[in-house]
Amino acid sequence: MQQVAERWGETAWKGRFFTIWLGQAASLLGSSLVHFALIWWLTSTTGSATVLALSTLAALLPHILLSPFAGAVVDRSNRRFVMMVADGLIAVLTLGLVWVFAAGLAQVWHVYAVLFARSALGAFHWPAMAASTSLMVPEKSLSRVAGLNQALQGAVGIVAPPLGALMLAVLPMHQVLAIDVVTALMAVLPLLFIRVPQPVRSVQSRGQSHGRGQISLIQDVRAGLRYVFTWPGLCIVCVMAAVINCVVNPAFSLLPILVTQHFGGQAMELGWINAAYGVGVIAGGLALSAWGGFKRRIVTSMFGLACMGAGMIVIGAMPVTLFFIAVAGMTVAGAMHPITNGPLFAVLQSTVAPDMQGRVMSLLNALATATSPLSLLAAGPLSDAFGVQGWYVVGGILCIALAATGYLTPAVANLEQGRPPLPLFSSEVRPNL
Question: φ and ψ at 370, to 5 degrees?
Fold first, then answer.
C-alpha cells in the first residue's frame, strides 16, 4: 500500500487525494441535506413510525443484497470509474425527484424508490473509495486521513440537519433537493482528471480458476467469503454488529417520531438533536487523535461501544420535559462512534490484503446489517403501538452487554494480530471438487 502511494510523490499525493476528497465531502453534505429533507417530508406528511421504518429498510436492503457482489466488482474494476458512475447516477436520480416535487406529484413510494436506488449505488461507491484510500495515501498518513474523515462526518452531522431545516423553511422542497445534483457533479469532476491507483491482484484474491481462463465474479465473491469466514474473530465481530444493528438501527430510524411525538418538537428540534450527534462525533474523533486509545485497539472499540450504550439509555429514559438531557445523551453516543469504529477500521486496514479490501469491507457491511430488515419491519408497528423510547433503552443495554462479551472473548480480543494461519487442506487452499 505504501509503495503505491509513494509513487505519487511525497507531497504530490496530498494535492491529488484532497482534490478528490473535497469533491466527495461536498457530495456527502448534499446527500445529508437531501436525506434530512426527505425524512422530514415523510414525518410531516404521514406521522407514521411504520413509514419511517420502511424508508430505512429501503435504504438498507441494497447494501445487504448487493454488497457481496459490489465488493467483488470494485476489486476487479477501475475504482475511479466505479465512483464516477455511482455519483453521476445519483445526480440523475435526484434530478428526477426534483421534477416530481416541482410538479406536485410526490408520493411516499417515490421517496422509497429513490432511497433504494441511491443506496444501491452507494453499495458500490463506498468500498471503491475506502479501498482506494490505502493506495492513494502513504501508510504513515492513513490514521490522520481516517481522523479527518471522522471529523468530516461529524461536521456534516452538525451542519446538515439545522441547515436542512432552515432551507425547508425558506425554499420549496424541489430546490432543496436540487442542491444534491450540484454536489454530486462536484464529486465527479475531479475524478475526470485524477488517476486512482489500482492494486495488483494476488492469486488468493482471485479464487480458483482451475485453468479455465478468466476468473468469474462468483469466484471472486467466494474468495471474499472464504477470506472472512476463515477468520474466527472477524466472524464474531460480524455477529456482534448484526445483533447491535438489529436493535439500534430501528431506534435511530425512528428518531423523528421520538422528537415529534414524545418530546413534542418540530424540524428545528430534530435538527438540533441530529447536530448534537455530529458534535459528539467531532469531539470523539479529536479525543481519539489526542489520546490514541488503549494499547490494544480492540479494547478501545469495546470501551466506546459500552459508553455508546450508556448514551442511548439516557436518550430513551428521559421524560418529555428533559429534551436537553436527551440531546446530551445523543452527544455522548456520537462521541463514542469514532472511538468504537475508528480503531476497528484501522485494524482491518492494516491486516486485510489491499486487493481484498473492497470485498471484505462490503461483506462486513452486508453481514452486519443482515438482521436489520426484520427488525425494521417489526419496529414500525410496535413503536406505533407502544412508543419509541424502549428501542433506545434496550439497544443501550445490548451495546454494554456485547462490549463486555467482546472484551472477554479471545478471538475478538486478539483480532488485531491478524488473520490466523490456515490449517493444511483448509477450504482456502484445497481445490473445489
Answer: -60, -30
Closest CA to 136 of 151, 146, 125: 146
Q: Cell 416535487 sits at which residue?
A: 101
- Torsion-angle region of residue 205: left (phi > 0), alpha (psi -120 to 50) or beta? alpha
Amino acid at 367: L
Q: Each residue of 62-76: pLDDT tens digit?
A: 877 887 788 788 877
User: What proportion of the chain, given as a percentage, has pLDDT over 70?
Assistant: 88
Does residue 107 lie within any of the structural domains?
A: yes
Q: Which three cell numbers stand for residue 73?
A: 466488482
Tell me whether residue 210 is in a domain. no
pLDDT digits (tens, 9 = 90+) for 104-147: 888 989 999 988 998 888 888 878 887 777 778 776 666 667 66
The span from the CA of 172 to the CA of 41, in Å, is: 11
In angstroms, the CA 168 to CA 41 distance is 10
What contacts 24+ positions apart, CB below 8 Å, involve 187-191? Answer: 187/23, 187/24, 187/26, 187/27, 187/83, 187/87, 188/23, 188/84, 188/87, 188/88, 188/91, 189/23, 190/19, 190/20, 190/22, 190/23, 191/20, 191/23, 191/80, 191/83, 191/84, 191/87
Q: What is the CA 192 to chain-centroid distance, rounded?
A: 25
Q: Are 246 and 399 in contact (CB under 8 A)?
A: no
269-319 tens-digit pLDDT:
887 888 888 888 888 877 877 777 787 888 889 999 999 999 999 999 999
Euclidean distance between CA atoms 428 and 110, whole angstroms: 44
Cα–Cα separations (whole angstroms), residue 210 to 20, 205, 415: 39, 14, 32
Residue type, 144: R
What is the pTM (predicted TM-score) of this model?
0.66
**Where in the sequence is the domain holding 298, given as residue range(s)?**
2-198+215-417
As a 3-state breakdown, the chain gives helix, strand, coil percent values, each rounded to 5, of 80, 0, 20
C-beta of residue 147 within 8 angstroms of C-beta of residue 288: yes
What is the rounded CA–CA span in Å between residue 71 and residue 221? 8
Three cell numbers, residue 63: 447494501
What one-letter code names the amino acid at 107?
Answer: Q
Could you tell me if residue 207 is inside a domain? no
Q: How far apart are CA 296 and CA 343, in angstroms?
A: 9
CATH number of the structural domain spanning residue 281 = 1.20.1250.20
In a domain, 62, yes or no: yes
Domains in the chain, number: 1
Angle at 271 between CA 269 and CA 276, to 5 degrees: 95
Question: How many CA within 13 A on the CB side of residue 190?
Answer: 19
- Written as nine digits, the cell of 28 is 456527502
